[in-house]
Amino acid sequence: QVRLVESGGGLVQAGGSLRLSCAATGFIFRVSAMAWYRQAPGKQRELVASITATGSTNYADSVKGRFTISRDNTKNTEYLQMSNLKPEDTAVYYCHSQTYNSWGRGTQVTVSS
User: Fold this and answer.
1) Confidence band (pLDDT; 50, 70, 90) for 1?
2) What residues pair up with 109 in beta bridges, in sequence order?
3) Helices (H), strands (E): how many in the chain?
4) From edge to edge, which strands make up the β-sheet containing 18-25?
5) Of 87, 90, 89, 83, which is closest to residue 69 (Cα–Cα)?
6) Which residues are CB-neighbours of 110 under 8 A, at least 6 positions away?
7) Residue 92 pLDDT level (bands cut at 50, 70, 90)
8) Average confidence score pLDDT of the chain
């Protein structure tokens, strides 16, 4: 029933931008704290950004000033706007509902030099 589906990943050159989307179904999205995580090959999954039900945000130090997390409760969608991308941002990015403890399958982001 609970489903999170990421989209928007792809290949981009360093310095470029990309916007990820996460479509949520099967739960009351507007009351859920949401987040984006990422995992690079051979590394642990890390929290990139989070957003509360009321819109308060937090970011990992590595992405502050470059990434913006947002949500549109009318569309049940979470976004991650990524700017000034760096090769070290390369990873599979996962949408997560903190309130419902659910995960998407991930979308690949590859940043080339």
Assistant:
1) confident
2) 10, 91
3) 0, 11
4) 3-7, 18-25, 77-82, 67-72
5) 83
6) 10, 11, 12, 90
7) very high
8) 97
